[in-house]
Amino acid sequence: MSALDTLLWVAFPYASLTLLVAGLVWRWRSDQFGWTTRSSQLHEKAILRLASPLFHVGFLMVIAGHFLGLIIPKTWTDAVGFREQAYHVLATSAGSLAALLTVVGLVGLLWRRFITQSVRLATTRRDKVMYVLLTLPILLGTWATLSTQLFGQPGGYDYRETISPWLRSILTFTPQAEAMPTVPLAFRLHIIAGFLLFAIWPFTRLVHAVTIPVQYPTRPYIVYRARQASVSAAPTRRGWAPVDTTTAHEGAGSRGA
Amino acid sequence: MKVMAQIAMVMNLDKCIGCHTCSVTCKQAWTNRTGAEYMWFNNVETRPGVGYPHTWEDQDTWHGGWARTKKGRLKPRSGGRLARLAKIFANPDLPELVDYYEPWSYEYDKLLSAPKDSAAFPVARPVSQITGKPMDKITWGPNWDDDLGGSTETMSQDPVLAQMNLDVRTEIEQTFMFYLPRICEHCLNPTCVAACPSGAMYKRAEDGIVLVDQDRCRGWRMCVSSCPYKKVYFNHTTGKAEKCTLCYPRLEAGQPTICSETCVGRLRYLGVLLYDADRVGEAAAVEDPQDLYPAQRSVLLDPYDPQVVAAARRDGVPESWIQAAQDSPIWALIDTYEVALPLHPEYRTLPMVWYIPPLSPVVDQVTASGNDGEDHKILLTALSTMRIPLEYLAGLFTAGDTRPVERSLRRLAAMRSYMRDVNLGGAGDEDIAGAVGMSGAQVEDMYRLLAIAKYDDRYVIPTTHPETPRGIAALGQDVSDLIGAGDGSPEACSVSTFHGQSTLRMTSRGRAAAAASAASQPSTPGRVNLLDWGGDEHASGLFPPAPSEGSDR
Questions:
Q1: In Å, what is the CA distance from B126 to each residue of A32, A224, B132, B370?
Q2: Structural domains of chain B, with CATH
Q3: Closest Cα in chain B to A28
Q4: CA-based angle B185:B343:B156, to the nearest 5?
Q5: How many domains is chain A partitioned into structurally?
Q6: CB contact, 8 Å: B15 with chain A?
Q7: Is A227 a member of any domain?
């Protein structure tokens, strides 16, 4: 295995996952105020109403599919009598459907984002980088599925013999990347693009995915909270900063509005 | 019984002249920021009219507020918990910016930068604050139908008119008209709080103010659509919900909200109500929407009842708040005089900003017909025959039941006639008072509260820190130094610590005291409060150090 392969299949995934985890922790601690979907529905609703659910439901299906295919070992499905043939048909059909939903949704979202003027102006540079790095793995993954599973050799490509053990070895801190150079190019590109996306995830508005409000269904409807010093009127010192100093302006908290 | 305190407001619509001072000062205080251009925490609508946002009262479209299920339970009209999570990727009920209006500014710069000998006259074109493009034809704004302007085209869209099947004449000179200032209702049963998936919205336990925790809001926008009054807004720049805070920093210092403080007509009242938190759900779920007004009143507790006072003490309501509840002008207007009514109780949120319906449209019409608009017999007769204003007001305040509206207007009419007698040297006609179920003394008390109540009678607000009574707090930093807030405990919020303003400092005596105190023990060395600075004494830190050889002055 060459140095480049070690870099790509061992060092890079770890660097990416480190950025993901450390970045999320850092952002959670330092930037609660910035932790939001930053929705643009106020500007444009007609396309979003279709495209956003399509994209999100498709993407959740994609995540579930990746979990099934990558995290669950092949030996387990074999053990419960789930034959490779049946798995392949199921995974390919469900995966293609998920890809279709995601891509159609994403096209709709990108369309409104760059065609509707108010939405385009609400797009930050960070959003643009995020959109590129989000679109790449989705298109590459779709390509990989189409080229190998749907239109490839009969039986498709069994990634559960190569990619899945490699990913589990990464996640269990026993990296074994020997099989990776033999994986079809489309999958390799998809994996690299995917880890790139993980690396920037905490620094974009994608963080909203981490705070899915799962506790909402179990909560009482009305929330009461006692007044806290932190949400009370900020004890701003009176007076103006002297003209010859450059101290940061204190107070002016953003809470509670 | 679980006694909780709520800061509530009453607005006397008879006195509103539609000057929008409340809206403007509120905007200056809270929403003059990027992303908040279109927000008006306080707005004044001309009624009949479509309101802001456009037809906000049409809950068949917006699905705000609560709905009563067949089993008699309450569910947000936009759906229960799981239905809401299913809709989280795109909120189908969310208004778009055009439903409010597209905010704009003008190219004022063009007026100044036009070349001296330009052949064309310089023009400041309107420019959208959303797209940055010129808006050559502005077609909607926050008060488009102000004073019934353009109402011939839009008035028929007023949801209250539609609901009441009212056919109002659209000839301006023949219709009735009044102003409706609106802020967040700070409801006892807020749907916005119930709809927030993140749990970022909450009702403050001490004073009932409904707030958005800006750190926990994730921008799901469910509060915006679930609020039937459309008083939660989405800041499209920060991606967070924002709403009227009832100016809690001012309230905590014992000051009224900025809309109340600056109200030209002095029509706003602020005070404490005690209510039974255990009975809120039950009251909001009564079957007939017309029973919601009495049900909501039954949740409010009599602050003079010894049992209520004992329970309030048990539940940790501070003594100063119980006292404030007894002195509350709100309680008097709602319960003693029964003239204040809730706005759209049929939304089942138990709103806490109440309104005294306007008598003026009726009086104006009576006077216009050549009769004496201050004779109680004529007025009371007119009230029972003028169905359109009555039914419209009932559509706003009592889910269509005209009886409470009529009672309120009859009392206002009786007060008008009774006080005219007194002002003309009469002794006051007990028959007039008796006709509306009051005594002459009661009518005079109500007159005092409605017509001549002073600042401290209109705004009875206990401070957050009972140990720093209202008024004393206005002395500010100097007093908290005196009574020892310097023990490392968090600084008490006082008038002078809030935005650095001070009221007593405006007097010469206050300034002298402040200057003496600042000289002996400057609390913020190196800083100068320009509000305090009289301009006559040297203020170190205001100017760069002077050359050493010369004098500072």
A1: 36, 44, 10, 46
A2: 17-101+142-261 (3.30.70.20), 268-458 (3.30.70), 463-553 (no CATH)
A3: B215
A4: 120
A5: 1
A6: no
A7: no
Q: Say whether pLDDT at B457 is over 90.
A: yes
Given A42, A55, A256, which is nearest B211 (Cβ)? A256
Any A CB within 8 A of B190 CB: yes
Chain B residues inside the 8 Å CB shell of A44: 96
ipTM confidence = 0.85
From the list A37, A49, A217, the residue facing B239 with the nearest CB is A37
* CB contact set of A196 (below 8 Å; sequence gap of 6+): A16, A133, A136, A137
Contact at CB, B96 and A238, closer than 8 angstroms: no
Q: Say yes or no for a CB contact (<8 Å) between B85 and A43.
A: no
Q: How far is A135 from chain B (nearest CA, A)?
A: 19
Q: Identify whether B142 is preceded by a cis peptide bond (ω within 30 of 0).
A: no
CA A36 to chain B, closest CA, distance in angstroms equals 4
Q: Is B489 on the interface with A (CB under 8 A)?
A: no
Q: For residue A47, what pLDDT is reported? A: 96
Pseudo-torsion of CA A39, A43, A46, A52, nearest 10°? -20
Supply the pLDDT for residue A243: 38
How are beta strands B3-12 and B268-276 bridged, if at all?
Answer: antiparallel
Residue A241, chain B, CB below 8 Å: the answer is yes
**Contact: A226, B204; criterion CB under 8 Å:** yes
Q: What is the band of B534 on the pLDDT scale with cuts at 50, 70, 90?
A: low
What SS3 class is residue B529?
Answer: coil
Residue A57, chain B, CB below 8 Å: the answer is: yes
pLDDT at B384: 81
Residue of B nearest to A241 (CA): B527
Answer for the pair B217, A36: CB distance below 8 angstroms, yes or no: yes
- Give per-residue pLDDT as tens, B155-203: 888 888 877 776 665 555 566 789 999 999 999 999 999 999 999 999 9
Average pLDDT across chain B, whole number: 86
- The residue-averaged pLDDT of B458-468 equals 77
DSSP helix/strand/coil, B136: coil
Looking at residue B361, its pLDDT comes to 81
Strand A224-225, strand B201-204: pairing: parallel
Give the percent of chain A with pLDDT over 70. 88
Q: Give the range of the structural domain holding residue A183, as residue numbers without chain letter.
A: 3-214
Which CATH number is A169's domain given? 1.20.950.20
Q: What is the pLDDT of residue A237?
A: 41
